[in-house]
Amino acid sequence: MKLSEQQKQAFLSYARSAIGAIAAVMVTAGWSWEDVAKALVAALIPPVLRWLNANDAAFGRGSDKV
To answer: Which of 36, 34, 17, 14 is nearest to 26 (CA)?
Structure first.
């Protein structure tokens, strides 16, 4: 499966969110696989919010038609 440039950028956006969320968990709660898993799920929120925003030119719904 080949990813489009837009899909790669969306994945990188998620990766940045995930790194930030994991760092926050590690600083505040220490290393727990359960907490890291929760951080990975929480890191989905920013990219999903961008996708839901139809006015977001990069990742918003319908942005591939722009």
So the answer is: 36
Q: Which two tokens stand for residue 23?
A: 């760092």
Tokens at 28, concatenated: 């505040």
Q: What pTM was computed for the model?
A: 0.74
Per-residue pLDDT tens for 30-44?
788 898 899 999 999
- Token pair for 21: 């969320």
Name which of 41, 37, 38, 47 is nearest 14 in CA terms.
Answer: 47
* Residue-by-residue DSSP string for 19-35: HHHHHHHHHHH---HHH
